[in-house]
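dude i think i finally got it to work??
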Amino acid sequence: MQTSPVSEEPSRYIPAKPKMDVYEAGRIFRTCAYCRVSTDHEEQAYSLELQKEHWAKVVKEHKNWSLLHVFADEGITATSTKHRVQFNQMIEDCLNDKYDLIVTKSVSRFARNVVDGIEIARKLKNHNPPVGIFFEADGIFTLVEDSEIRLSIMFSF
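look at this
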């Protein structure tokens, strides 16, 4: 019985995808910020202004972030994205290649509905070119490998 010869082809090296880093020095992120307050009370409006000021300051501290716009919804609940006009405009603008990065305070400011939150994060991550979301308080950047499982956990709270 004769066996077939073993292939003499050299091994192929398939490099790993480079890891994305929201602080990556060699890349400028066209950045937008998202702020939201859930009531129309006067003190909440003040909170919205503080959030806007916060993002202006944070973006200045990151030389690779260029803040182009701050989207803000006032008096809107996060349980659904349906009535959040500024939020929906931001997502549309990202899908139209105006921004590479969304920065927001936390997962709960972005969405409280697990399905909406994960669906939007996936849609933006899979867009060409991908759009990342950085959740500052939660330390989650959606363009890294473990972000989806971490998002699922955070959205479920």
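Helices lie at 42-61, 85-95, 107-110, 114-126, 147-156.
im so relieved honestly
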